[in-house]
Amino acid sequence: MEDTWTNRDLPVLKAVVGIYEATGKTMIRPGEIAAKAGFDQETTERALRALYREPYLEPRTHSYSGGFIAVGPPTGDALRVAG
Predict the structure, then answer these.
(1) CA–CA distance, 18 with 79 (Å, rounded to integer)
(2) Sequence-ordered alpha helix ranges (H) in the chain
(3) Residues 6 or more apart in contact with residue 31 via CB below 8 angstroms
(4) How far apart are CA 77 and CA 83, in angstroms?
(5) In this predicted structure, which of 8-17, 46-55, 60-69 has the lowest mean pLDDT?
(6) Torsion on CA atoms 73, 77, 82, 83, rounded to nearest 10
(7) What is the CATH number of domain 4-82?
(8) What is the largest CA-CA distance in the chain?
(9) Which DSSP category does 66 fall into?
(10) Which residues make Cβ contacts (< 8 Å) with residue 34, sequence separation at least 6?
(11) HSE (side-chain half, CA atoms, 13 Å) at 58
């Protein structure tokens, strides 16, 4: 079984934290996260859904179809986990 935390979720979390720390943005677009993490949109969205279950991210904006429009800032736990 694939280790989704190490191979997918943690890199996406680190991308969110990196963007947040570099820009101070409180609403980060999934495409920006995908580009920084080096993943496609679908993989990034799966990781974001997993990260919201912890929760490592503040509230988000999503479309009626369930996709992410923007991701909220990382929580304190996320900042500690991402290093």
Answers:
(1) 10
(2) 4, 10-23, 30-37, 41-52, 76-82
(3) 41
(4) 10
(5) 60-69
(6) 120
(7) 1.10.10.10
(8) 36
(9) S
(10) 40, 41, 43, 44
(11) 12
Contact 28, 71 (CB under 8 A): yes
- Residue pair 17/79 in contact (Cβ under 8 Å)? The answer is yes
Please, what is the end-to-end C-alpha distance for the chain in angstroms? 26
Residue 72 token pair: 């909220």
Please report the pLDDT score of residue 1 as a whole number.
Answer: 66
pLDDT tens-digit profile of 18-61? 999 999 998 999 999 999 999 999 999 999 999 988 888 887 77
Q: Where are the domains of the chain?
A: 4-82
Q: Cα(65)–Cα(6) distance, rounded to whole angstroms?
A: 28
Whole-number pLDDT of residue 53:
87
